[in-house]
Amino acid sequence: MELTPQRLGWTDQLLAQLLMPVGTMVLTPSLTSGLTQRAGDPAGVFWGVGDRGPNIKPADAVRRYGLAHLAPLAEVEGAKIMPLPGAGPAIARFRLVGDRVELEAILPLRAPDGTPLSGLAPPTLAGMETEPVFAIDGKAFVPTANGVDTEGIAALPDGRFWIAEEYGPSLLLVGADGVVQKRIVPQGAGHLFAGVSIPAEEGLPAISLARKLNRGIEALALSCAGATLYAAFQSPLAHPDRAAHENGDTVRIWALDPETAEFRAEYIYPLDAPLAFVRDCAAGPVAKSDVKVSELASLQDGSLLVLERVTLSTHIYRVRPGDTASTPAELLDPDHRPTLEQLGQTGRAPVMAKQLVLSSDEHTEVCGDMEGMLVLGDGSLLLANDSDYGIEGAETQFWKFALHHG
């Protein structure tokens, strides 16, 4: 079996141009953190979701744009600068036309009262890791209950979408018009979202609150039969502490009810060792915590494709949830020790068997930072990178991998 890559035509639109001490910050829409298809749509139509908005690390803002006053913020773990906070999360409708992708619509996510959702961080419980976000002048943004960092998207047959976001982490049920109908948050966190127009329900297991900073729920996929919604964390949880995340080699994939997001089962996905990511290792040291899951896609036989990556190297594997026993209920208990993250791949719980479908290490022309993935009607794969709004010069790229049997 052989995969042949083809870069599809695409043109990024201009979002904003901001004059900086050094040069101009040219921003473009970034709408492919996750991809999905919706039943009943015309041929070639698919959907994407963008993340929280343009953001950059303080050290990179100093180096690239001469923003010297931001240098002290480089010492703040996880700090991000958001130069255009009004450009918040959105979904987009695309159409594949021949060898080109066209953008048909952008729908900003909105609360039922019409208020646009923000890409700023929401309030958190005491002791939780949270993302420090700053304006271009270095002032800290105040947390907002309508803040989301959207990353994964799955379309329901009735036209609605489930969208996963990393901050809470939480799941958003979104109408076809971009209006968020409800937010499913971890057990024990509902009060943080009181008083806003988006109804919040405590539906996710409480253990999700242990997500490591900027590594929450990253990927969603609805099974082809429509019976199960799968959600994957980006990385091992920081459970019971940061060391468990940094040394972890498994990611939790949850099976949820597609109507209510009620938890059904948990599966353990084993991550590749850092040395397996050849292009990244050639560029510099790769730590265990650099390996992450960025996307899921469903196949007709009930299996899932999992997009696993660092930066330059992307590995796509096929896994079969139905062939793997789910984890014992005790591993969902935040008080249970040892935790799943401490046990790892050699622990008591079974891990999913995975079959390699694609490695971009064999296709060096393909870009890094892949985050969106679709299985097209002809069985080929459509991949898209996260351009990070062009803030560091990247552009959106779509790659199609046609499957050949030989």
Tell me what you see in this structure.
Pfam families: Phytase-like (PF13449). Residues 33-388 form the Phytase-like domain. InterPro entries: Phytase-like_dom (IPR027372). This is Esterase-like activity of phytase family protein. With 406 residues, this protein is mainly beta. The protein has one domain (2-404): 6 Propeller (Neuraminidase). It has four helices and 25 strands. The chain has helices spanning 58-65, 242-247, 278-283, 340-343, and strands spanning 2-7, 16-19, 24-27, 34-36, 45-49, 80-81, 90-97, 100-108, 133-134, 150-155, 161-165, 170-174, 180-186, 200-204, 217-222, 229-233, 250-256, 263-270, 292-298, 304-309, 314-319, 354-359, 370-375, 381-385, 398-404. The protein has a five-stranded mixed beta sheet with strand order 10-11-12-13-14, with no helix packed on it. Strand 11 (161-165) and strand 12 (170-174) form a beta hairpin. The longest helix has 8 residues, at 58-65. The chain is globular.
Strand content: 25-35%
Q: What percentage of residues falls in helices of 4 or more residues?
A: under 10%
CATH architecture: 6 Propeller
List the uncertain runs.
Answer: none
Main sheet characteristics: 5 strands, mixed
Q: Could you give the distance between the termini?
A: 6 Å
Principal-axis shape equals globular
Number of strands: 25
Listing every helix as H and every strand as E from the N terminus to the C terminus, the arrangement reads EEEEEHEEEEEEEEEEEHEEHEEEHEEEE
Strand order of the largest sheet: 10-11-12-13-14
Decide which structural class fits the backbone: mainly beta
CATH third-tier fold name: Neuraminidase
Number of domains: 1
Continuous helix count: 4
> What is the radius of gyration?
20 Å
Mean pLDDT: 95
Q: What would CATH call the class?
A: Mainly Beta
InterPro entries: Phytase-like_dom
Protein name: Esterase-like activity of phytase family protein
Organism: Novosphingobium aquae
Domain Phytase-like: 33-388
